[in-house]
Amino acid sequence: MATGRTHRPATRSRGIPEATVARLPLYLRALTALSERSVPTVSSEELATAAGVNSAKLRKDFSYLGSYGTRGVGYDVEYLVYQISRELGLTQDWPVVIVGIGNLGAALANYGGFASRGFRVAALIDADPAMAGKPVAGLPVRHTDELEAIITDNGVSIGVIATPAGAAQQVCDRLVEAGVTSILNFAPTVLSVPEGVDVRKVDLSIELQILAFHEQRKAGEDAAQTAATPPRVPRTTGGGRKGPDGDVPAVMPA
Ligand SMILES: NC(=O)c1ccc[n+]([C@@H]2O[C@H](COP(=O)([O-])OP(=O)(O)OC[C@H]3O[C@@H](n4cnc5c(N)ncnc54)[C@H](O)[C@@H]3O)[C@@H](O)[C@H]2O)c1
Fold it and tell me: Which residues bind DNA (predicted)?
């Protein structure tokens, strides 16, 4: 691939901070649930709780959209769904291709949540000739020889990579060369892309490692707390005393 490729840092989209952009899908998911229940308006506090976000942060985020709600009434759910969808570019259909139709690629292809959010899976692509033509999630798997033609014919700008790590950069290069400008990468490798191409990486093992770190911290804190607390001396009840469920605890806490 040509020189001058960079791994681009998080950018700002039309003056909206990237952190706000990252929270918009959370608001949209919560708002869509309200809309499905025909809830007409929602307060910033209610919506913040439903989205798992601090309400002051939510109000600040919505100010970037020019949405301030109505005092005493809150935000109009339907209008906010429309506004956020428009901001995220979801009022149009986005054809996507998935490359690498193994365990993960097939699972992604079978996930119904893409289509309902405006992402149409245009094609499933794999390098294994034995897979060509086989149906996965109702679509025939196409061979990588067809990759460029598929991208051009379907006007695809978003590609999902679910190949082994060793193949991911080469797949990425071909996607970009063919006109893809956004890549969702599941392969555990850092991709280099030219200016103007966005890469988002999903790595569940990294998420698990972060949880493991917190678990370890919690275990350390618990151990420190136990060491600092005087031991509880169990007191026997002398038998016959029943717990609320009728059981007979032999030992009750002090
Ligand atoms: N991000 C995550 O959280 C996460 C979770 C699971 C797996 N993964 C990663 O996803 C990738 C796929 O995992 P899997 O379990 O589905 O593997 P898999 O071996 O089941 O599938 C990989 C598929 O990629 C195809 N392939 C190989 N080279 C290719 C190329 N150059 N072009 C197109 N297709 C090609 C193979 O034929 C195969 O069908 C791996 O990199 C794995 O590490 C990521």
Answer: 26-65
21 C-beta closer than 6 A to ligand 1: no
pLDDT tens by residue, 85-129: 999 988 888 999 999 999 999 999 999 888 888 899 999 999 999
Residue 118 falls in which region: left (phi positive, over 0), alpha (psi -120 to 50) or beta: left
Pairing status of strand 158-161 against strand 182-185: parallel
Ligand 1 atom with the shortest distance to the CA of 204:
3
Q: How far is CA 121 from the centre of its chain?
A: 17
Report the topology of domain 94-205. Rossmann fold (3.40.50)
Reported pTM: 0.77
Going from the Cα of 232 to the center of ligand 1, the distance in angstroms, rounded, reads 53
> Could you read off the pLDDT of 46-63 as tens digits, one per residue?
999 999 999 999 999 999
Give the start-to-end residue ranges of the domains of the chain. Answer: 18-87, 94-205
